[in-house]
Amino acid sequence: MPGLYLLVIVVSFAGVSLLAHRFLPGVMGPRLLRPILAVLVAFLAFDVIGAARGWFASNLDWVVAYVPPGIPPEEPLLLAFLALFSVVLFEAFRRGRPGRRPGDHDRA
């Protein structure tokens, strides 16, 4: 069922974005682009090398299409979602530590 994998990624991305916007003010903004772009560049480079060498393969029953050398279009969206989810989890734990106030910042 092509498209189901893409739909799950999009719904997950939207859900985490809405939760972060609602419960973690300030996380969803332009600063979030840096970690997402870093993850995309690093992992897509690895994916291109791996797909070209035959290390990775995607099931055509689940992906919408292949982009040479064999990376599905869902892959960049999944990587962006994983970066977003990681930042949101990190911020949720950082802000939720006992004894902290919302304006406190960590000092090295």
pLDDT averaged over residues: 86
Helix content: 55-70%
The low-confidence runs, each spanning 5 or more residues with pLDDT under 50, are none
State the helix count: 3
Helix-and-strand structural type: mainly alpha
Question: SSE order, as H and E?
Answer: HHH
User: Describe the biggest sheet?
Assistant: none
Anisotropy-based shape: elongated
Q: Report Rg.
A: 17 Å
Distance between the termini: 50 Å
Number of strands: 0
| Structural domain tally | 1
Determine the strand fraction and express it as a percent band: under 5%
Kindly describe this structure.
- This protein is an all-alpha fold and 108 residues long.
- It has one domain (4-95).
- It is 57% helix and 0% strand.
- The chain contains 3 helices and no strands.
- It has helices spanning 4-23, 33-52, 74-95.
- Helix 1 (4-23) packs parallel to helix 3 (74-95) and helix 2 (33-52) crosses helix 3.
- The longest helix has 22 residues, at 74-95.
- The protein starts with a helix and ends in a 13-residue tail after the last helix.
